[in-house]
Amino acid sequence: MNFNKLVLASISFVTGMLMLVFPLQAKVEGDKIILGSAISLTGKYATNGLHAQRGYDFAVERINSMGGVKVGGKTYMLSIKYYDDESTPARGAQLAERLIKQDGVEFMLGPYSSGLTKAIAPVTEKYGVPMVEAEGASRSLFTQGYRYLFAVLSTSEQYLSPSIDHAASMAKKNGKNPSSVKVAMAFENDPFSLDVREGVVDTAKKYGMKIVIDDKLPADLSDMSSTLTKVKAMRPDILLVSGHSKGAATAARQIGEMRINVPLISITHCEAAKVHEKFPKAAQGFLCPTQWSPNVPYSDSYFGDSKKYDREFKAAYPSYSAIPYQTAQASAAVLVWKLAFEAANSFDKDRLRDAISATQTETFYGKIKFSEAGNNIAKPMLMRQISGKKYADVVSANDLAWPRKVSY
Fold it and tell me: Of 160, 174, 250, 361, which is the most buried if we count CB atoms within 10 A?
């Protein structure tokens, strides 16, 4: 062996021994536990990415102010290392790898959207890094056999299907057969929205309803006038739209511009897109699925009840007149991590994975219990209807303002 090879071999041996004695500790630095997240701060998902980031940060600040996390008899503060995934799945996967391999992060929070979560989950699974995510609702995420993926939110097929149930109930109330209800729908061609569509199709089929319009929203989500032109001609009883925040804003704007008057309109991401503020006339009567409401009857020892969370988050971020559920569920994901650290009493990834899996708790956001597949099976979706510039909870069709009354 020549001298250069001998030196390289010696350096490799010493480096290996040092890594055994002093393992990479970016995940826990001194009294700080570092969580990692690739989140959309630019690109098409930037609005909801910011909502999620604020929910994460609000929870970290609250938990730290109340004594942090106790592991092994020592107190730790939480911190989050963020990278901007630019709303691009490939970039999200790359940044997840960077967080784990370069930054040493072994405790992950999810990105925004099902598409980004689908890109990142194989990476966290590959390295056995637990990820508690709050923004990826696609049910297909929980059919892949992932062991390290856990979601606090309800899955996406549940988002708009209650609107179909309500339409069926209102038809019966008016002496009509639910099969007479005509359904129009437009969905973005992404994993989340396509799962939402499947839930709608299955529920409509149960009642024998006819789907008269079934459109794919254009890629840039800035124009759905072709769909709305058909709506004017076909006169459906219910219009369903899912296209994240940009799709919701586009739909509300053009529904107003084109004076669309359908008895029931149900759209995802109402609060996040602030349609009740930006398009108050057009948005009147919109039925909006939500993962959380300030009126849910749940509480915990960190955030109090849902009304207290609503009040205190608005005090911290005064620009919000209605808190998007994306924010609330992000805070709940951080709380799951805090509880898991203390239940495991360890920073070992597999012990933490098992502690997360065993979590059964009530939070201000709702009840949390994970199935073997990692989805939350303890919390249903909720529906809220826009009335004035506020949201009213819709528990049953009796709470529904039908038909939608709007004056353009």
Answer: 160
